[in-house]
Amino acid sequence: MQIAYAHFTVNHMVHYQTRLDTTFAALSDVTRRGVLEQLGDSDASVTDLAQRFRMTLTGMKKHVSVLEQAGLVTTEKVGRVRTCKLGPRRLEEEAAWIERHHQLWSARFDALDELVEHLKRREKTDVPRKRR
Question: SUPFAM superfamilies, alphabetically (predicted)?
Fold first, then answer.
């Protein structure tokens, strides 16, 4: 029973890490982030997106494909027009991951600030007083 649970946990963790990697890779490109912002305002065809971002249709299709694989965009083809819209992913796992690391680093910087202040106070009290 424990082996099955451990296997599930490892598989879940690998799947979670793969999903994070795919999402962050998709978000690492300025054009793809721009596409997401654009689709936040309204759905758009791949052709419209290519024109707005001044790129080839092939280039935009590649960007849309990366976003689609990450679940950030969905596409639907009607006739010759492929329309893009925001996907079902809401980035909750990614936001939670960022928040955990933000808290970790904040705690480390707070501890560093405390240490620096402690050393400053100690330095002031350790300096021998000059005689007049």
Answer: Winged helix' DNA-binding domain
Q: Say if residue 76 is in the same domain as residue 97.
A: no
* pLDDT higher than 90, residue 128: no
Give, rounded to a whole angstrom, the gap between the first and last alpha carbons of the chain: 79
Owning domain of residue 14: 2-86
Does 77 lie in the same domain as 27? yes
Instruction: Judge whether 68 and 85 are in contact, CB under 8 Å.
Output: no
Sheet containing 44-45: which strands, arranged edge to edge?
44-45, 81-86, 73-78
pTM over 0.85: no
Radius of gyration of the chain (CA): 25
* C-alpha span between 35 and 74 (Å, rounded): 12
**Distance from C-alpha of 80 to C-alpha of 18, rounded to nearest angstrom:** 33
